[in-house]
Amino acid sequence: MRLISPKVRFMKPVHTPDALSGLKVLELGQLIAGPFAAKTLADFGADVIKIEPPGAGDPLRKWRLLKDGTSVWWQLQSRNKRSLALDLRHSEGQALVRQLALESDVLIENFRPGALEAWGLDPLDLMVANPRLIVLRVSGYGQTGPYRDRPGFGVVAEAMGGLRHLSGEPGQTPVRVGVSIGDTLAALHGVVGILIALQERHRSGQGQIIDMALYEAVFNCMESLVPEFSAFGVVREPAGSALPGIAPSNAYRCTDGHVLIAGNGDSIFRRLMQAIGRNDLGQAPDLADNAGRVARVKVIDAAIESWTQQHSVVQVLAVLEQAQVPSGRIYTAADIAQDPHYQARDMLLPTLQTDGTEILLPGVVPKLSRTPGRSRQPAPMTVGQDSEAILKEMGLTPEQINSLKTQGIVA
């Protein structure tokens, strides 16, 4: 498949500083949540030094599909970063981290609680040496509480946060979202916390610790799940492709696939019913608002699907677009890669590989008008690719660097 380059670019003028230019970030985490947070900051100009264990490096380098021996996921997650291969179990490696933390604005880690302390890298001690340091700590259950020492991955957090119970069809085994949504939500909440702490630091001059639990990031997105239980004793149950309490909003069969239709606004519902030839429902007084439609949602869904299953996806979407009813196809990766809106919004970035070929990586979000994010440099393809340059910046001599390499502390 030929990769189509975006027609419209949002790359900023060369003379415009990056939004986070000058922000120094030290990344000690691995895999998803911590590194995703650091990647977001790096996309907007932060100088991110990623600490990796010598040898294999971050396990994400070998996750899912590999190209030239390296995961293409890694190339997205680690773009705009520099790699320093450092053994955190060794006292001299720990000393180098403490030195880096002295000059850092932000430290990001997502190890199990207590790991940094065991390595002599207690964030409270680091903040005594550098009072302006902001520390993001991402873990399964947080740094406190009875579950703090449990190992916690995103999939477990999604279950504890309430998301997994609502996923899938009623009466069936709950299904997971096909991506690491718990980790990503925690990372984005962590970025929000960092930006809040940076803003507060302008006033106080002091850093602080951000304690981000994976399950809490998921739980924060669960809308009225607990308030409904607290107020009415209602335990929300899975509802398949529908959205309980909001009607109509569902996936409907066509002759060649499915479409998603959100006709839950009052005027939108009337336009939808007119478009499918069911003005009897559109003008029914008891269906004029959402509460009435929820009571008769099965009748409404049946009417909509009776119409959609007579037409193709393209035909259905054409009619609904004309009627200004929110609707859309269910995109695959192939649909995304060829979609003109993705291209026009600079959401598909052709990235050159070491073998001279290109792959598409997701673009940068959010879109800022004056200082948008960008891909400044590719992910470090070898573990410790930037070690020597970083250590020289720290003031180490070539002899000191060679000694550290000989001892296996640095790679």
The total count of strands amounts to 13
Shape: elongated
Largest sheet: 6 strands, parallel
What is the domain tally?
2
The helix/strand class is alpha/beta
CATH class of the largest domain: Alpha Beta
Low-confidence stretches: 1-14
Q: CATH H level of the largest domain: which superfamily?
A: Crotonobetainyl-coa:carnitine coa-transferase, domain 1
Q: Please tell me the CATH architecture of the largest domain by its name.
A: 3-Layer(aba) Sandwich
Number of helical stretches of at least 4 residues: 18
Order of adjacent strands in the largest pleated sheet: 5-2-1-6-7-8
Question: How big is the Rg?
Answer: 25 Å
**What percent of residues adopt helix (DSSP H or I)?**
25-40%
CATH topology of the largest domain: Rossmann fold
* Overall pLDDT: 94
What does this structure look like?
This protein folds into two domains: 24-221 and 355-406, Crotonobetainyl-coa:carnitine coa-transferase, domain 1 (Rossmann fold); 249-334, formyl-coa transferase, domain 3 (2-Layer Sandwich). Helices cover 37% and strands 14% of the residues. The protein has helices at residues 33-43, 72-77, 91-102, 115-118, 123-129, 154-160, 181-204, 214-219, 225-232, 266-275, 279-282, 290-295, 297-308, 313-322, 333-338, 340-344, 387-393, 398-406, and strands at 24-27, 47-52, 66-67, 70-71, 81-85, 106-109, 134-139, 209-213, 249-254, 257-262, 327-329, 348-352, 358-362. It is elongated, with a radius of gyration of 25 Å.
